[in-house]
Automatic annotation (TrEMBL):
GO terms for molecular function: ATP binding. GO terms for biological process: regulation of DNA-templated transcription. Transmembrane segments: none annotated. The keyword NADP does not apply. Pfam families: AAA_lid_14, Sigma54_activat. The lineage of its organism: Bacteria, Pseudomonadati, Pseudomonadota, Gammaproteobacteria, Alteromonadales. Keywords: ATP-binding, Nucleotide-binding, Transcription, Transcription regulation. Residues 151-377 form the Sigma-54 factor interaction domain. This is Sigma-54-dependent Fis family transcriptional regulator. The keyword Nuclease does not apply.
Length: 504
């Protein structure tokens, strides 16, 4: 074989190997949190059919660093044995180890057979309730990840998206980002913006579904009245990026206006006759199946014009290996935000991580972030993260009808809801967003967006500390009265009070 042939073959082999999936253990939580996200390939299991897991074997690594074993003093040196079985199954033997082993949070006495399908989804292995590992078939490729990444994660999907983000950053073509609610479409758009030359320029995100027909022209084109100039969204994004969110949920009038803008490549502010050229990169996000769009409609033409490049972000349950890192990141982020100045070496209990890894996450990464915030609020005075029993039961696998489930009964467009209707419904539902969404026939995310949009409508998160203090004293700590006084939900209010250290 010639040198060139060898080099080419070598490169091809490396490429094939890097995409080949092998049984891999990923650290989802560990008493040393810097180890979250480290991986170990079980190559002996893959090649010879047997492998071991103990305090001293195998070696885990990330970011191409030198590997080290789990090394947790509470984990036994006597190993758990992995044995390949016919049909792609793996027998996990825990007879000879003193380590307490759990699978998906349930104790394993002697043996557990891992089915092939489970290996595809990821099997959650707990060791002494301290270390939690995900056993999953994953590509050999390692992924460097640091706290400065805008798109956090170690999965092959996120790695591929990060790679595309870099490529797209140097171009100006429009990008369509697809994926279910809360997967990180907006975050991906922001990552492209941040990686581009225009990163110091504006990043404007527009929730199209919340734009009322009556004000659509003013909001999109801008206006000039009585010498007051109000720039539209496209002008606000001048030189930077505009993200048109949930394009399919906008009204036909909004679709028409957007089409006009794209055709003329300019906007004419209401009350003027001056055409301002649009000078921003356009990105779209959508959570709908493209197959459902009516052919030859304005919407289909719009999407065709703006989908020069498409990115798809898979749901969180298809990349469970990202959950440990993301949760750790969100917990630290929330801790900083809520208790700045208080240093905390956050330890994530194994029981919680097992539950996070087995939950079905209908609200994807946004929901994971909300859970992190709630856990941080509930843990204010605790040594390690505290689990509210109610939250724990909501995170039970299969709790599909629980509070966290995304509501299926969305029947209305959010822009048909007026401020008065929203306020009245919120009051009749005691300011609970889920109940309000159900009653209005829109999604919970849309209720939230409408609240942000209408002046004088708020959630407990928006209240200032002074307002809370005043109402607390005035209503003598009665949260029912405070709810009517401040017009926000009692649950949200109680959470704010707790996080501010009030006695309730
Ligand atoms: N890979 C990621 N790394 C860091 N944060 C992320 C990541 N993915 C999502 N997030 C965070 O999760 C939350 C939801 O993400 P985002 O708003 O981008 O979702 P989305 O897909 O646009 O949702 P929707 O369709 O409901 O508007 C945000 O707070 C975002 O910052």
């Amino acid at each position: 074989m010639s040198a060139t042939q060898y080099t080419t073959k070598h490169a091809v082999d490396e490429l094939v190997n890097s995409y080949q999936r092998v049984p891999m253990l990923v650290i989802a939580t560990h008493p040393d949190r810097t180890r979250i996200g480290e991986r170990a390939a079980l190559m002996d299991l893959h090649n010879q059919g047997n492998d071991y897991l103990s305090r001293v074997k195998p070696e885990f690594a990330k970011n191409g660093n030198v590997g080290r074993a789990l090394l947790d003093e509470f984990i036994s040196r006597s190993p758990i044995i992995f044995q390949r079985e016919p049909g792609g199954r793996i027998r996990l033997k825990a007879h000879s180890t003193k380590t307490t082993v759990t699978i998906a949070g349930r104790g394993v006495q002697d043996e557990y057979i891992v089915q092939e399908k489970e290996l595809d989804n990821g099997v959650v292995i707990g060791l002494n309730h301290r270390v939690v590992l995900l056993l999953k078939l994953l590509p050999l490729h390692d992924s460097a990840v640091d706290d400065n990444d805008v798109l956090f994660g170690i999965s092959a999907d996120i790695r591929a998206i990060r790679h595309r983000v870099e490529q797209l950053a140097g171009m100006t073509l429009p990008v369509m980002i697809r994926g279910a609610a809360g997967v990180g479409k907006q975050q991906a758009a922001y990552a492209i913006h941040q990686a581009s030359n225009g990163k110091s320029r504006p990043f404007v995100s527009v929730n199209l579904a919340a734009i009322h027909d009556a004000v659509a022209e003013v909001e999109l084109f801008g206006s000039a009245r009585n010498e007051t100039r109000q720039p539209g969204y496209f002008e606000q994004a001048n030189g930077g990026t505009i993200v048109l969110e949930d394009i399919e949920d906008a009204s036909v009038s909004v679709h028409r206006l957007l089409y006009t803008i794209l055709q003329s490549q300019s906007v004419v502010p209401v009350g003027t006759d001056e055409a301002l050229p649009i000078n921003c990169r356009i990105m779209l996000t959508s959570h709908h199946d493209p197959a459902g769009i009516e052919e030859n409609s304005i919407l289909s033409m719009l999407i065709e014009k703006l989908s020069a490049y498409q990115l798809f972000i898979p749901p969180l349950t298809e990349r469970r290996e990202d959950i440990g890192l993301l949760f750790d990141y969100f917990v630290r982020e929330q801790w900083q935000k809520l208790y700045s100045g208080r240093v905390h070496d956050v330890k994530i209990p194994g029981e919680l991580m097992s539950q996070l890894l087995t939950f079905h996450w209908p609200g994807n990464v946004r929901q994971l972030r909300n859970v992190a915030r709630q856990v941080v609020i509930d843990s204010r005075e605790q040594e390690q993260l505290h689990l509210d029993p109610q939250l724990l039961s909501m995170l039970k696998p299969g709790a599909a009808n629980g509070h966290w489930e995304e509501e299926p009964g969305v029947q209305r467009k959010p822009n048909s809801v007026s401020r008065n209707e929203l306020l009245e419904t919120l009051r009749s539902c005691r300011f609970e967003l889920q109940a309000t969404a159900k009653k209005l026939g829109i999604s919970r995310a849309s209720v939230y967006q409408l609240i942000q949009r209408f002046e004088g409508v708020r959630t407990a998160q928006d209240l200032s500390e002074d307002e809370i203090k005043e109402s607390y004293e005035l209503n003598r700590s009665d949260t029912e009265r405070m709810m009517w006084d401040l017009q926000v939900s009692q649950i949200g209010l109680r959470r704010r009070l707790k996080s501010l250290g009030y006695d309730i």
